[in-house]
Amino acid sequence: MATTSKKVAKSFTDGCPSISLLLRREATAATAIVVDDGPQKWTVIPSVDDNKQKKTSSAIASLASNTEPLPSNTSTKGIQIMLRAQTCHPLDPLSAAEISVAVATVRAAGETPEVRDGIRFIEVVLLEPDKSVVALADAYFFPPFQSSLMPRTKGGSLVPTKLPPRRARLIVYNKKTNETSIWIVELTEVHAAARGGHHRGKVISSNVVPDVQPPIDAQEYAECEAVVKNYPPFREAMKRRGIDDMDLVMVDPWCVGYHSEVDAPSRRLAKPLVFCRSESDCPMENGYARPVEGIHVLVDVQNMEIIEFEDRKLVPLPPVDPLRNYTAGETRGGIDRSDVKPLHIIQPEGPSFRISGNYVEWQKWNFRIGFTPREGLVIHSVAYLDGSRGRRPIAHRLSFVEMVVPYGDPNDPHYRKNAFDAGEDGLGKNAHSLKRGCDCLGYIKYFDSHFTNFTGGVETTENCVCLHEEDHGMLWKHQDWRTGFAEVRCSRRLTVSFVCTVANYEYAFYWHFYQDGKIEAEVKLTGILSLGALQPGEYRKYGTTIAPGLYAPVHQHFFVARMNMAVDCKPGEAHNQVVEVNVKVEEPGKENVHNNAFYAEETLLRSELQAMRDCDPFSARHWIVRNTRTVNRTGQLTGYKLVPGPNCLPLAGPEAKFLRRAAFLKHNLWVTQYAPGEDFPGGEFPNQNPRAGEGLASWVEQDRPLEESDTVLWYIFGITHVPRLEDWPVMPVEHIGFMLQPHGFFNCSPAVDVPPPSGCDSESRDSEVTESSSVAKHTTTGLMAKL
Question: Mean pLDDT over residues 742-760, rounded?
Answer without folding.
Answer: 93
